[in-house]
Amino acid sequence: MTLCVVNAQPGKVKTAASSPLKTFTDSVNYAIGISVANFYRQLGATKLNTVLVSKAINDVMANKKTVIDEETANQLMNRYMTEIQKEKVKPNIQACETFLAKNKTKPGVITTPSGLQYEVLREGTGPKPKATDQVVCNYKGSLLDGTEFDNSYSRGQPATFSLQEVVGGWTEGIQLMSVGAKFKFYIPYNLGYKLFDHGTIPGGSCLIFEVELLDIKK
Questions:
Q1: Are 153 and 138 a contacting pair, CB within 8 Å?
Q2: Which domain range does residue 63 map to?
Q3: Quick one: 166 and 207 in the same domain?
Q4: pTM above 0.85?
Q5: pLDDT in tens, 85-94
Q6: Domain containing 143 — which CATH number?
Q7: 62 with 82, same domain?
Q8: Angle, nearest 10°, between helix axes 70-88 and 90-103?
Q9: C-alpha dist (Å) from residue 12 to 19, 28, 196
Q10: What mean pLDDT is reported for the chain?
Q11: Are residues 75 and 98 in the same domain?
């Protein structure tokens, strides 16, 4: 049921007799509340103490000193939204952890202290890159279910990038390779794109890459 309908003429509002919205300004204020509530509900914040929310809004709008400062508020919101997102992608995280726990027992799979797993498909004979280097690679990446999300082979051209500009699993893993080598990486979500979606890659996903290190550019 529509609570109020704003007329074509600014400042005039048609409302039901029982509605608390008697003026255009009343309706705008209520509309702001709807907008704020829908925004955070869509993000996953379904349980809010509206009394405290209202207090914070009133304090800010009245230029009163808030109970917590803006920097702390931002930190709290970042932590809260991270927790919400982690709950959303919990099935992906569990699938990743289950897969890696089984995969590390396979012959030839090596697990580093960070949790990165890899196997050597072909050894190289050239130098190894450093974290500050640019490298030239051919690769293909897929999810646990086999869905391919990137492939330099299909583009017909290797990729050049800095090891400081890629996910943590790549930064660590590529430094283990010599030029000419081909490795397979199994990257846990925390060394990949973490909790949040990245293009077609869902948050919390394990990443599987086959990578050939072709060259190092200083």
A1: yes
A2: 4-88
A3: yes
A4: no
A5: 999 999 999 9
A6: 3.10.50.40
A7: yes
A8: 60
A9: 15, 11, 44
A10: 91
A11: no
